[in-house]
Amino acid sequence: MSDAAHMARALACARRAAEAGETPVGAVIVDEATGEVIAEAHNAPIAQHDPTAHAEILAIRAAAEKLANYRLRPGLTLYVTLEPCAMCAGAIANARIARLVYGAPDEKGGAVAHGPRFFDQPTCHWRPSITAGIAAEDSAALLRAFFRQRR
Description:
- The chain is an alpha/beta fold.
- Helices cover about 40% and strands about 20% of the residues.
- The protein is globular, with a radius of gyration of 14 Å.
């Protein structure tokens, strides 16, 4: 499947987050060799009473549980609808995600292309390959609509 197809699945997760009253961010982890979806999740800090329950963290936790290892196997790609924050970038590095694909940039809270540029730091011990902007407008539109409804 293509990056666009996997991002469409992440967007479906993000829509489920919005329906639950959570910030609409979705994540999917895929084994690129087989095309198998290893895990998927959406933001859930409100429902889980957990400030770390970002879509990326929940997907990484589910993948680690499924694979029975805190370091994920080589060849996995994380698709996420919004540029990861510093916390999520740290989790991506610790899990050894091979490739990160994200949709909308996040100038305020992002930590990949914005803010601390986590993976560019000399202290970062693992750097995934990064593809940005896949379904960026769809991801951004979902976020804008969600926050517009709350104002």
